[in-house]
Design a protein that fits this description.
Layout: E1 3-9, E2 13-20, E3 25-32, H1 39-56, E4 60-67, E5 70-72, E6 77-80, H2 93-101, E7 105-109, H3 110-121, E8 130-135, E9 139-145, E10 148-149, H4 181-184, H5 186-194, H6 204-212, H7 216-240, E11 244-248, H8 255-267, E12 275-277, H9 284-300
Parallel strand pairs: 1-4, 4-7, 8-11, 11-12
Antiparallel strand pairs: 1-2, 2-3, 5-6, 8-9, 9-10
Helix pairs in contact: 3-9, 5-7, 6-7, 7-8
């Protein structure tokens, strides 16, 4: 049974795992990205992590990479990246990976990979029309229709974080103003906190803990944050009309505290049952990257189980 590696390169950390075609994870690993040191340092960390995984499982047949930034899936190049990964724009990920490890390699945007992972082994199992919204330092997104990823002609499909929510609103690091990312990311939650008098919170987890204890300031901050998140979800639903919008990313770790607030707001527009939290947590991108690697093997017909379908996976069949 083929085994593949899936890795997820983010602004603060790199995660990776080895998984087989049945979805059984054999080994996991993680390390810091060291992004502030630039491309060479990031590649050094990535090389070390993949090498560690290869030393644990020698029968690996392919490598999939999920990365922040806009990725051309056909060439494996990062065609746009923000300062979260300095020097990352223009990085030929699959070319580098194949040269370094001698494995068939593939790459995609991290939000696309997260949706693929959730569709395969997580919240989206059995569904063909899905949207992923990742709420972390930034906001990522991905779309799936009838079991196929909608990446777009310029590989920007699903980039909900950089759709404009507030015309002439807060400046965004993409160069526009009023982007969704500036209002519902983890960074936006902390900005809301800093705007409140008497605030002493230094991390989103502190806000969540305080809210769970009934602190008025924390509850007010969350109420404002969730109100905007509900508007974004309603806008996505009106645009795509998916079976399910899956929420992932660091902000969702404490969803038990704010989930009732969100479902209450969404109930008024009939969307409470159309939203769910990602099951795979921060490993969704790795699982999706591994799924991409498995699809590469299907297409190449390399090391595949007898009788397996070699066409591109259509999720939810």
């Amino acid at each position: 049974m083929p085994q593949v590696i899936g890795v997820d390169v983010g602004g603060t950390g790199i995660k990776g795992l080895v998984v087989n075609e049945a979805g059984v994870v054999r080994v996991e690993a993680a390390c810091a990205t060291e992004a502030r040191l630039g491309r060479k340092a990031i590649l050094g960390q990535l090389h070390g992590l993949v090498s560690e995984l290869l030393s644990s499982c020698e029968e690996v047949k392919a490598l999939g990479i999920a990365s922040a930034g806009r990725v051309n899936v056909e060439t494996g190049e990062v065609i746009h990246a923000t300062n979260n990964l300095p020097g990352w724009q223009g990085m030929p990920l699959t070319q580098w990976a194949t040269a370094e490890f001698g494995l068939p390699s593939t790459a995609d945007n991290d939000a696309n990979a997260a949706l693929l992972g959730e569709a395969w082994l997580g919240t989206g199992r059995g569904k063909q029309n899905l949207v992923m919204l990742t709420l972390g330092t930034g906001v990522g997104g991905a779309n799936m229709a009838f079991g196929r990823m909608l990446r777009g002609v310029d590989w920007r499909g699903g980039d909900w974080g950089h759709s404009v929510l507030v015309p002439d609103g807060r400046p965004c690091n993409c160069g526009k103003r009023g982007c969704v990312e500036q209002y519902i990311s983890g960074s936006a939650l902390m900005r809301l906190a800093r705007e409140q008098k008497g605030n002493t919170y230094t991390h989103g987890r502190e806000i969540m803990t305080a809210a769970s204890q009934g602190e008025a300031i924390a509850l007010y901050i969350l109420e404002r944050y969730i109100s905007v998140l509900a508007v974004v979800i309603a806008n996505i639903s009106a645009s795509i009309d998916p079976e399910l919008i899956i929420l992932g990313g660091g902000v969702t770790h404490d969803q038990a505290i704010w989930w009732p607030m969100l479902t209450a707001k969404l109930s008024s527009v009939g969307l409470a049952d159309r939203v769910a939290v990602a099951e795979l947590g921060n490993w969704a991108g790795c699982i999706g990257a591994a799924q991409l690697a498995l699809e590469r093997l299907r297409k190449d017909g390399v090391g595949w189980s007898e009788g397996s379908d070699r066409e591109e996976t259509k999720h939810g069949d």
